[in-house]
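Lecture notes, unit on protein representations.

Consider one protein chain, 452 amino acids long.
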Amino acid sequence: MRGRDGSAVPEIKYAKADDGVDLAYQVFGDGDVAVVGIPGIISNIEVLWEHPDSARFLRRLGSFSRFVHYDKRGQGLSDRSVDVPTLEQRALDTRAVMDAAGIEQAVIAGVSEGGSTAVMLAATCPERVSALMLFGTFARLPVADDYPIGWAPQVGEQVADAWAASWGTADSITTALVRPEYVGDEQFCSWLRRYERQSSTPAGLRAQLQWAGAIDIRSILPTLSVPTRVMHFTGDPLVPVEFGRWLGEHIPGARYMEYPGREHVPYFGTYDEVTDDVEEFVTGRRSHTRADRVLATVLFSDIVSSTDEAARMGDRQWHDVLDRHDAAANRIVESHGGRVVKSTGDGCLATFDGPARGIRCATELMTAAGDLELSIRAGLHTGEIELRDNDITGIAVHIAARVSAVADAGEVLVSRTVKDLVTGSGITFDDRGLHDLKGVPDRWQLLEVAGS
C-alpha cells in the first residue's frame, strides 16, 4: 500500500493486550535504536501517512531509528468498543505492543496526552525504557491550588463541547487547535476532518478529553530516573507552553527545549530542527545539517484556467481532481529527488538540488496532468533560497514564479541560468526571447524546454 505521496505505507499489525483488546501498530525503519511513539487524542496510523507533511515526518524518524507507533485502545484501527482505561492499563498496552514487535527496550516518545502514558511506563518499568521524550504534553490540565497554570474548569468544558460538536464536520475546530496557520486551507482541513473521523467518534473524543482532564501525573515525576527531554512549541494553541516548562522543571535531570511555532504537534510541517534534535537525543549524532540559505532549483507549476475548470466540474469533482493532481505531483517530485514545499491550491512549489532533475520532473508533471484532462504550465529558476521552517523565500522564488506566469499552457519555461547549468545533459531548448519579469530587475532571457 502507498500513501498519496507515493511512499510505501508500513504494514498494519495487531498486538493483543493482556485483556484481549486488539492494538494496531506499525514498525518501520532500520536504525539501531528502537523508538515507540504514543499518540495523543487524534490518531489513525494508516491515515497519518496520507498527508505529505506527516508522511515526511514519519520517514525521517524511520531514517535513524526502528520506529513503532500504535493506535491506543478506543481510537483509530485499534478496538474502539472499549471503556476508557486506567493509566496503568495504557502503560500495559504499550508493553504489549513492544512485546509484539520484539522490542525489549526503547526510547518512549509521548505526544500530548500520550505523554502521561509514557511517564507511567518509564516510572514503573524503567528497564524497558532507555530514554523518555515528551512533546506538547502536561502533568495536569485543570487548575488546582498547587498547580495554578492549568485550564480553568469552565474553559475545559467549553473546549470539549465545541470540539465534540464540530468533530469531523465542515465546522471542525481541530485545525485551530493543532495548526491555526492552516485555518482556511481547505485541502489540509478536508484531510484533517477525515483523520478525525477515522480516529474516533464525537462521543469517543469526549470520553478521551474527560480522561485527559482527570489525569494527574505530578506525583510520578520525581520518581523518573531515565534521561528525559521535554519539547514544546512556544505558541501551542491547545496545551500552552507554560505546561511544558513546568514539566521540564519538575522532572529530575530533564532537558527542556522550546521551538517557535503555533503548532501542537510536529507532524504537519517541515520542522527539521525538531527532528534533528530528536535524532541527536536518540542516536547521539545528527546526520542532517541544516543550512538557512542554499542554492536550489525552484519549480512552480500551475493549472491553466483553474477557475473555469472548477466552475465546469463543480466543487465535489474539482476537489477530487485536485487531490489526484496533488498526489501525482508529490509522487513525481519525490521520484526526481525533489521536495514539495507546498501546494499552491492549483499547482505546487517544489525544490531540487539539480536543475536537470527539476526540468525532467516538470515535463513528467505535464504528462500526468494530461492524464487528468488538465493543462498546466511550469517555470524554473536556479538561485539562492532561504529556508524558513516549512517554506522558502528569496529572489529565486520570485523569479521562478514570474517565469511560470509567462509560460503558456503545456509549456515548461526556464531562465537562462537554468539552461546554462544543464549543458551536456541532452535537454534541448527553444529561445523565447527577453522578458520583463514583474518586480524583478533587468530583462531576463527565457527558454522553452523542447526535449528532455
